[in-house]
Amino acid sequence: MQLIDFWRNLPGQWKFERVFSDQSIQVGSLHVVKETNSVYKGQEQGIYKVSQQTFFRNYKYSWEVDFLNIYGENPKQGYGLLHTLSNASRVHTHICKQDFYQFELLKTDLTSWGSVITITGPRKDLKLTTVYKRSGDDLLQ
Predict the structure, then answer these.
(1) Pair 104, 116: CB distance under 8 Å
(2) Which residues contact residue 64 at a Cβ distance below 8 angstroms, ignoring those fewer than 6 apart?
(3) What count of other Cβ atoms lies within 10 Å of the Cβ of residue 107?
(4) Rounded to two decimals, what is the model's pTM?
(5) What secondary structure letter does DSSP report for 78?
């Protein structure tokens, strides 16, 4: 699937499971809505399975001339660019506070997609693998 098609299919409700390299697991949902013609707004929320601690994060996804930009919200600083992807490269790397982050967008289709985030460095050393599946109600549309 081309990246533009993935982006166009992104609005709606997604369920996900995220497995960390230490085997801890998050489960939850990502709800994505259109904000403008080129920007979608998403909110992820869920729980850590073992501790039952809840979490949430807001995202923005923008499409700009063959590039998908993913922004994450920091409550104190607003939205900051996390990843830039293209059809040529569905992998994005950057350094944050001395740690090296690599984001990879995996298989994408109309009903599922996935990502892997690998973080290495002096402060963190972990891998997060997330699988998103379209929620049942969205399959009926």
Answers:
(1) yes
(2) 38
(3) 10
(4) 0.90
(5) E
Sheet containing 25-34, strands listed edge to edge, beginning at the edge strand earlier in sequence = 78-85, 67-74, 54-64, 39-48, 25-34, 12-20, 125-134, 112-120, 99-108, 91-96
Q: What is the pLDDT of residues 50-64, one digit of tens each?
A: 899 999 999 999 999
Q: Residue 117: give the domain boundaries.
A: 3-133
User: Does residue 124 lie in a domain region?
Assistant: yes
| Domain total of the chain | 1
% of the chain residues with pLDDT over 90: 85
Residue type, position 4, single letter: I
Tokens describing residue 102 = 């690599």
Position 141 in a domain: no
